[in-house]
């Protein structure tokens, strides 16, 4: 089968950073679905793994943790899926990735593809939807008010893949005022179009930007990027006893800053359930089914930003390059393999 991967960790400008491969088709385990991959999207985790994780000696590593496709076969213990089903999912960080014609995935973390979306539109969503959902509802517990705080959430990095879903979920499923951050006119417009009540500029002093809205101190902050750079401002602007969640990987984070306001810190990593086969692993499949229902009812929409064409090494190198530039808006999607 056709696939894209790498044999050595290299800068994305190197033609060997991602290469076209011919690999054996995998066989599903008892709890797996074998999926014919129709479309994939590219996430920051793809670039991080490519830069940091060397493949086994003599081998190649296939990236990709978002896919939409068609079930080809189901393992003996799988329930609820059959050949021909259209699905979408984000996969497992500890297993080969989705940048391949055929892919095996634990059926418990798979959802049924939204009927109103095409393959590319659906592939844009799983990883970011799971991350945003788990952050808002499992980590930040948005339904629990922070005493004395403004009923508002600040989403730092609102135009990114996760931020784009988080804005929609917070607007549709909570009563919170949604404040997003963006630093360019086009990304600010993107956030407003997704439903943000207010957009502030994170390239300016963030605490002053939020204070100028006149809403009071928000009780919840969801930081998707550059948390270390924004931490002091977040601590200044958030209400006492507020809750801060993050998803990025700061080299250092001075958590001592949180003590004075008794702030709680929540780190979201959407691969935790699949990596540790947690008792509630099936919650991710159920979550994706609910996201599909919300999309099909017109309450949520895809966050596809750019379609980069076929799934091949050259197009994936372009996608990695854009993500590493920090200027991506929404999700980058690729669709289909060359025959």
TrEMBL record:
Keywords for this protein: Metal-binding, NADP, Oxidoreductase, Zinc
Q: What InterPro entries does the database record attribute to this sequence?
A: ADH-like_N, ADH_Zn_typ-1, ER, GroES-like_sf, NAD(P)-bd_dom_sf, Zinc-ADH_QOR/CCCR
Transmembrane stretches in the record are none
Under SUPFAM superfamilies, the record lists: GroES-like, NAD(P)-binding Rossmann-fold domains
Organism's domain of life? Answer: Bacteria
Keyword check for NADP: yes
Enoyl reductase (ER) domain ranges (all copies): 13-334
Pfam families cross-referenced by the UniProt entry: ADH_N, ADH_zinc_N_2
Tell me the protein family, please.
Belongs to the zinc-containing alcohol dehydrogenase family. Quinone oxidoreductase subfamily.
The protein's name is Zinc-type alcohol dehydrogenase-like protein
> Which organism's genome codes for this protein?
Methylobacterium radiotolerans
């Amino acid at each position: 089968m056709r696939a894209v991967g790498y044999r050595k960790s290299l800068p994305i400008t190197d033609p060997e950073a991602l290469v076209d491969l011919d690999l054996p088709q995998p066989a599903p385990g008892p709890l797996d679905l074998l999926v014919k991959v129709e479309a994939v999207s590219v996430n920051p985790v793809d670039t991080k793994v490519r830069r940091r994780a060397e493949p086994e000696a003599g081998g190649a590593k296939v990236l990709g943790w978002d896919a939409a496709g068609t079930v080809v076969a189901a393992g003996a213990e799988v329930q609820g899926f059959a050949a021909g089903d259209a699905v979408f999912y984000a996969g497992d960080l500890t297993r080969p990735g989705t940048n391949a014609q055929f892919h095996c995935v634990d059926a418990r973390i798979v959802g049924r593809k939204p009927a109103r979306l095409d393959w590319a539109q659906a592939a844009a969503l799983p990883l970011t939807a799971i991350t945003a959902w788990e952050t808002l509802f499992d980590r930040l517990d948005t339904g629990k008010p922070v005493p004395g705080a403004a009923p508002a959430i600040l989403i730092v990095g609102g135009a990114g893949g996760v931020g784009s879903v988080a804005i929609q979920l917070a607007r549709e499923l909570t009563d919170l005022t949604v404040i997003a951050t963006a630093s360019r006119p086009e990304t600010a417009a993107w956030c407003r179009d997704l439903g943000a009540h207010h957009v502030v500029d994170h390239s300016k002093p963030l605490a002053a930007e939020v204070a100028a809205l006149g809403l009071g101190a928000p009780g919840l902050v969801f930081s998707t990027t550059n948390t270390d750079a924004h931490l002091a401002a977040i601590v200044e602007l958030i209400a006492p006893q507020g809750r801060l969640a993050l998803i990025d990987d700061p080299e250092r984070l001075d958590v001592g800053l949180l003590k004075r306001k008794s702030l709680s810190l929540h780190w979201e990593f959407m691969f935790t359930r699949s990596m540790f086969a947690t008792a509630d692993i099936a919650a991710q499949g159920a979550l994706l089914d609910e996201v599909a229902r919300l999309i099909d009812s017109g309450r949520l929409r895809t966050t596809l930003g750019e379609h980069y064409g076929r799934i091949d090494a050259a197009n994936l190198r372009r996608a990695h390059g854009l993500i590493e530039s920090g200027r991506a808006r929404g999700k980058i999607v690729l669709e289909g393999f060359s025959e």
